[in-house]
Design goal:
Helix content: 25-40%
CATH topology: TIM Barrel
Structural class: alpha/beta
Largest sheet: 6 strands, parallel
Radius of gyration: 16 Å
Number of domains: 1
Distance between the termini: 18 Å
Low-confidence stretches: none
Number of strands: 9
Mean pLDDT: 96
CATH superfamily: Metal-dependent hydrolases
Order of helices and strands: EHEEHEEHEHEHEHEHH
Length: 227
């Protein structure tokens, strides 16, 4: 498995507090057959660590944890605002592993936006949006289909697969095969890391091939190999 959404880069956001905390998460992931993890600290267009600072911190982080046998890649979970696109374009904000894929959190945005227009605008500029924990957007079922058709990719959190609050929309997203990535969105070693449990559930409710696609192949092909 490949986990594309984590907050294990310590000391940059509300994620892991230190290297010990981060190391526990990496080892827990390895024990669940996770072979690669994307380190995706929170970024905004207006505050926080810039891309160069995060790269420096990640390089040191990667040196420390590469011995654990889990490949690490750098990205970011970017809070949506109207200024994000230009800053991604000029590499002030991080895409996923320096590809054209951008992980964006629309749930926490303080600005109004038209999601379909945003997706099309990014696509026109050569970028592809991965919607972070899309199940939390509270959209109608038909709207999820429209944003997929517009070119967005849908990521859901592993824990939310078992959250009754999101059961209806999660069931729909998997039934219609609209999910592209399942990720942990883990913030600390005290969190509930259940990628293995999520994989078993999705395999049962869909097929082994589709589960492998959204837990492994999509991340490998799109975000690592850049195909």
């Amino acid at each position: 498995m490949i986990d594309i959404h984590t907050h294990i880069l310590n000391g940059v956001d509300n994620g892991c507090k230190d290297y010990n905390d981060a190391g526990k998460v990496v080892l827990k992931a390895k024990s669940q057959d996770v072979t690669a993890m994307f380190v995706t600290p929170h970024q905004t267009a207006y505050a926080g660590f810039d891309a160069d600072s995060l790269k420096q911190k990640f390089n040191k982080f990667n040196e420390i944890f590469q011995k654990h046998g889990v490949d690490l890649y750098l990205g970011a979970e970017i809070e949506y605002s109207k200024d994000v696109l230009v800053k991604v374009f000029y590499k002030k904000l991080l895409s996923m592993n320096n590809t054209k894929f951008v992980l964006i959190d629309f749930n926490s945005s303080q600005e109004e936006y038209d999601l379909l227009s945003v997706i099309k605008d990014y696509k026109a500029h050569g970028f592809k949006i991965i919607i972070a924990h899309a199940e939390c957007l509270n959209l109608k079922e038909s709207e999820y289909l429209r944003i997929k058709n517009a070119g967005a990719y849908i990521q859901v959190d592993a824990e939310d697969i078992f959250n009754k609050k999101y059961k209806k929309i999660i069931d729909y997203l998997f039934e219609e095969r609209l999910v592209d990535f399942v990720a942990s969105n883990i913030h600390s070693s005290k969190g509930n890391y259940i990628m293995d449990k999520a994989l078993k559930d999705v395999t049962k409710r869909t097929t082994k091939d589709y589960a492998d696609l959204i837990f492994n192949r999509n991340a490998k092909n799109l975000l690592i190999l850049g195909k």
